[in-house]
Structures are given as structure tokens and as C-alpha cells.
Amino acid sequence: MNHVDTEDWKTDSPAEDNSVKGLVKRAAYCSLIVVILFAVAFQAAVAAQHTTTNVTASRKVSLDIKIVFIGFNKSNIDTEYLAWRENLPSQKANNIMVGEQETRVTYDLRYEFVFLEHSFKQKLLDSLRRISVEKELENPWFNAETHNVLYDANKVEEWFYKNRADYSGFPGNGYTFLIANLTELPSVSYDQLAQPWKNLAISPHYYSVEYVDEDLGYRIRNRQFMTAWGGHYRMWFFDVSAGPSFNTPEDPPLQVVLKALKIDLNTQYGRVWLTQYLADYLWEAVWNFAVPQFVHEPIYSKRYRFAINIFDNRTDLERTSVPVDKTVNTSRIKSTFKELLPYSEIEVSIKMQNFSSDPDLARVVKESFKIIDVGTGYVDVRPVYRYLQLNIGKYVPRILRNEEEVTIPMFCFVFSKQHMAYTSKWEVRGYRASLQGIALGDMAVISLTQYYELERGAIVKPPQGTKGIGFSQTVIHESGHMLGLMHPFQFGQVGDFVDSPMSYFAHSYDFSQFDKDALRRMHADRILLESSAKLAEAYELPMTRIAMPMSLARLNNAQDLIRRAEQEYERMNYVEAVSLALDARRLAAEGLRELREMPNIWPLAAICGVIIGVVVGYYLSDIRRKTRRPRSLPPSSTQLDQRILQYIAPCHSVHAYGSQPLHVACLPRKA
Ligand SMILES: [Zn+2]
Fold it and tell me: Ligand 1 center to residue 444 CA distance, Å?
């Protein structure tokens, strides 16, 4: 028994099959199907491209840290406990300290521990003994002369590098920290350190470097007394039995600490204690070298322009004695930064002037001079900074901090004897904050004096004649801060023993591998973030625009470049990664701009779908009409009556007559 509603009844007869209404219905269904098919096809095409895009607002990248133990019993260190995130950082968000901005980059740190056999230690000891130099020297830690055994730190670093196969090489994407315990070498004991009145012969061992100021030839003193070194490779070594060093007063040798704290390494707690002790040093190394923080925002730019202004506030005699143009070397500064940022243009300009030619600045400096005692005092840097900030256009007319150019204004003052100082309320406690330089984000201010720096050779023991310290090294250090780099001892003083101009201890002019990696990696990170964001934006546009072959090809190329940049990044080829990421970002931006300008053809596609649907619907209905067998005879009068009855009373069901149901196919069924 079929139930037919009144509307269906009207189209029941074959004669009515090809009526306008039927045609419209078929066309509508076909149109709908065509439109849906269009949509699904577009969606599938876009989705296929989209799944491989790295659409992120932040980045999480991996770094491997290999830790090599030399001279330790494996049984004395619990590596599982050492790898616990309380002992060694498992993740590190890379942030900017001034302004507390986030870089949106987090490093996932993976550790590998290697214990070297006794034979390796023996090989190292032999090598060290071959290069050892014994010297009676005034040792600033002891404030007395000691018999020191010195090893050339650069030679030791080179030895570790050449013998890296013995600890299965460096990780491809990370850093190696070697930690040695070499008490077989002449080392300081607890008794020697704790009971100096006993006048025991003290013979510590140290790693040594030598630095000479490149401007004025002064030899930096006391650079023999180091316990660690590195910076030329992705490696840093630390000897826990060396020292103590005056520069790291909180880090006496391990053998001294063990006795002072009565630690027995052969007990369960001894194992825990040693693991934690080493973890503290390794934690510092990871934070100082592998994933350092930034002091200012590390902006990638096509050009870095260092605009150096030198103000000479010395007497005529002092100016004649050390001409100001001898105190700074622009070509050295330029080559240093070209090596640090090989993908950018470096410009260094210098302007020298006497205070007499700038009476306003001279007045501010004079008014900021605080006399402490007769003949001593300082120039308070804050009012001078404020004046320079308000009048910056007078000194450096065009200042940019964007991708086209990062301008670094530098103001270098030469005084006779008084430094500048950054004062504070703690000054009352005797705190003296005299400074050689300060990087303030929008400018750097440096102050050197004739007495303490330019003619330093005359005031030190033993004297160094007319030798002195010029501006170049401090300019490089402060400029490093302005680009974002932090001190390598920010998270532990022993990090100061590294060949970097960002170290206080080293008087280096060339950036360490850690500095280079940190800055270049961050530039790559940021450009990759921007490239991915541009691609994500493109994919958010209406799908019909993206599905255009030209646009898809452009987006695919951008995606491919991002993939290649990531590959180089993982191999620590950050210079190549920056270059590829820049190409990817340019392509993604071009593609995005092109897509935005393209009209949205979705409504047009829908209209096309309807037209196709109508045509197909008509065609199908025409075929059906032509191929259908004639249907049963016209309804009998009884049937007709029944229908009429049903038309009159639509709520009654229509009954079939005989075995044949009254209504058969041809009616579009209502779901
Ligand atoms: Zn600094």
C-alpha cells in the first residue's frame, strides 16, 4: 500500500513526467551534486598541500648535548639521576632579558653521556705534560706568589678537537662539554687552601691564554689562571681539579670541596652529591653556551650600521701623547661583525670631536660630574644618556631598527681620569658602578680614561711603558650586546673562560662559535616563523584562490624552501638556513599578495555548477523519456474517481487495485 500525497499525485501520469517542475527538480539535484563535487575536489586539493605545512606561532627545536667525563669512575655518577630535569635542563625557552620579550623559540635538549677509558686520560695527561710551563707568579687568588703549572688553553682545546673520534665525535646538531678530573697533575689540596699559615708549597695547575690590546698594545694581565676553555668549536672543556682561579671565587677545585664537605664518593650519598655537583656546572654550561639568553632583541637586518661618535675631553698634552685616532680601528670592528653576520652588510662610520665643539653636551657632562674625594669622582651616565636620547638626531640623523637597517649609535667619551658610572641607591654601601661601557638598547655609551686605559702601561706592575687599551674591543663588546648577545658568564662565572669578546676575562676581538650560533640561529628561527605564518595566512584564503595552479606552485616552492632551510638548521648550517628561509618568506609573501589580489571565484563556480546541473538534468530526463516503455493504459474511470476522491479528501489513503500498486516509480521519492 503506497501513500501518496497530493503534490506527488499531480506528477503521477507519464504525460506529466517531462513537465517544467520535474525538469527543475532534476536540475536542482544534479546542480547540488556538481557543486558538492566541486567543493570536495577543491577541499581535497588544498588539504593535500596543507597537511605538510608547519603552521606555528612558535617553534620547538631539538639540540643534542654530549657530556664527556674524563677521570671519573662511572660508578660514582648516576647518569639517570643526572639527566633528570631538576639536574639538567630538558627544555629552555629562549627569551630576551631587557623588556622580558619572548622569542617564541623553545629548545628541546637531549643528553648523551660518555665515560672515557683510563687510556684516554693517560693520553691527555701525556699531552698536557709535554706542553706544561712552570712559572712562579703572583697569584691573585692567594695574593701571593705560587708555583704554577700552566697549559696553553688554545693548544688543549685543539687537542680535544683533534682527538674527538675517541669520544665518537661531536653531535651533528648540538654541543660537546668535556668535564675532566685530573688530580694526577699538580693540584691544590684542601690543607694548602684552608691552612695557608702552614706555608705549604702550593702548586696549582691552570689553562692559560694571552691577550694584547690591538689598538694600544697593552698585554692583559693574569690571563694564566683559568680552569676551563673553549669557543673555537662547538665544544667547551672544564677541569674540576684545576685552580682555584681569582676570577671564579665560587668554584674551588673538587678535591678541596670534597674534603671541606667531608664527602665520601664511595657511599650512596657520595654518588648523589657528585652527580649534583657536576650537574650544577653542566647546567651553567648549557645555559651560557648552548642556549644563551639575549639581552636585547636580536633583529635580523640586511645592514648593521655602527655610527661611532667619539668625544675627546682630555688636555692638549694627553691628546698629543695618545692621538684619539689611534684608539679605535674601524676596519677591525667591521671585519669582526662581517664574520659574525656573513649574510649582512656591515658599515662602520666614525666621527671624532672635541667637547669644545659641542657646548651643550659638555655642559650636561660637567653638571653630571660627582666629586667623591679630592681628585676622584665620576660622570653620572644617566643624565648624559637622557640628553643624547633627546638630541639623538643631532648626532645620528637617520636611525632604523628594522630589516632594512639596524643602526647602532655609539657614544665614546675619553676623559683624563674619571670614568662614567651608573649610580644606584646601593652606592651608600660603597658600591661603585663605574663602567667602561653600557648597551642601552637604543644606543651604547662607552667611557675610557687616559690614566686607567690609554696609558695603562704606566700604572701597572710590572710596567708596560706607554702601552694602553683603546676603544675597539669595548666597542665590539657593547655592539655585541646591542645585537642581542649576553655575557657568557650570565649563568655561572666559569663561563667567562671562553674566547669571546662578550667575556670579561678574555680580551677577544672575534666572536665565539657559541655567539655565532646563538645569533644566526635566532635569525633563522625568526625568519622561519615568519615564513610559516605567511604560508598559513595564504592557506586561510578561500580555497578556490589557492587551488589556482600558479598560486599552488608558488606556495609549494615556499614550502620546499622551508623544508630545506630546516634541514640546514638541523645541521647547524645557520647561515644557509637564514638564506633559504629568506627566499621562502619572500616567495610566501609574493604568493600571499597575489592570492589576495585574485577575485574570489567561488560564486562563479557555484553558478557554473547550477548551469551544468540544469543541462545534465535536462539531458537525463530527455534520455529517460525517449527510452521508457509505454506505461499502463490511462486509469479507468474507477481509478480516476478514486483519485478525484483523494484529491478532494487528501488525508485519506489511496488504495491499490488488484495486485498492482497504483503508484509505481517515476516519482521522485521524498526522503
Ligand atoms: Zn657587557
Answer: 11
| Strands 434-435 vs 444-449: parallel, antiparallel or unpaired | unpaired
Which H or E element spans position 382?
Answer: helix 381-390
pLDDT, one tens digit per residue, over 556-607 is 999 999 999 999 999 999 999 999 999 999 999 988 888 888 766 666 666 7
C-alpha 111/C-alpha 286 separation (Å) is 11
Residue 108 CA to ligand 1 centre (angstroms): 28
Give distance in angstroms: CA of 502 to centre of ligand 1.
6
Cα 642 to averaged position of ligand 1 atoms, centre (Å): 103
Is the Cβ–Cβ distance between 471 and 327 less than 8 Å? Answer: yes
- How far is the centre of ligand 1, averaged over its atoms, from the C-alpha of 484 (Å)? 11
DSSP strands (E only) in 15-120: 59-70, 91-96, 101-115
pTM here is 0.82
Of the candidates 390, 312, 401, the one whose C-alpha atom is nearest the C-alpha of residue 351 is: 312
434-435 β-sheet, strand order = 369-373, 376-380, 420-421, 434-435
Instruction: Tell me, in angstroms, the distance from the centre of ligand 1 to residue 527's CA.
Output: 27
Q: How far is CA 43 from CA 345, 426, 545, in A?
A: 44, 66, 11
Lowest-confidence range among 14-23, 173-182, 574-583, 609-618?
A: 14-23
Instruction: Report the pLDDT averaged over residues 665-669.
Output: 39
Tell how far the Cα of 397 is from the centroid of ligand 1, in angstroms.
26
Ligand 1 centroid vs 70 CA: distance in angstroms?
A: 33
Going from the Cα of 575 to the center of ligand 1, the distance in angstroms, rounded, reads 25
**Cα-to-centroid distance, 480 and ligand 1 (Å):** 8
What distance in angstroms lies between residue 503's CA and the mean position of ligand 1's atoms? 8
**SS3 string of 201-260?**
CCCCEEEECCCECCCCECECCCCCCECEEECCCCEEEEECCCCCCCCCCCCCCHHHHHHH
Cα(463)–Cα(459) distance, rounded to whole angstroms?
7
